């Protein structure tokens, strides 16, 4: 199944760092997300655009995962030639991951 079937995502950016929060629709799926959506899988999933470290933060109190992808936005909004300079579509892209 695709991640989008059990979760939604929000994205943000700061310079060339993108962060993606993954929040399950149902709290009971949170433990499975922690098991399946790892730093290594997210790094591999975005290997073509993420040229730095991927760090995962577990927000157990609100049942969410936050991924910080370093060196992902081509230098940031003022330097990137990408169409999506802020990386807002990265959350939607991650939701296409098979879990």
Quaternary form: single chain
Q: How many angstroms separate the termini?
A: 6 Å
Strand tally, please? Answer: 4
Class by SSE composition: alpha+beta
Mean pLDDT: 89
Spatial strand sequence of the major β-sheet = 1-2-4-3
Helix content: 10-25%
Content of β-strand: 25-35%
Q: Give me the strand/helix succession.
A: EEHHEEH
Given the C-alpha coordinates, what overall shape results? globular
How many distinct helices?
Answer: 3
| Whole-angstrom Rg | 13 Å
**Unreliable stretches:** none
Q: Main beta sheet, described?
A: 4 strands, antiparallel
Task: Write a structural description.
This protein has 99 residues and is α+β, with helices and mostly antiparallel strands. The protein is 19% helix and 28% strand. The protein has 3 helices and 4 strands; from the N terminus they run ββααββα. Strands 1-2-4-3 form a 4-stranded antiparallel sheet. Strand 3 (54-59) and strand 4 form a beta hairpin. The longest helix has 7 residues, at 30-36.
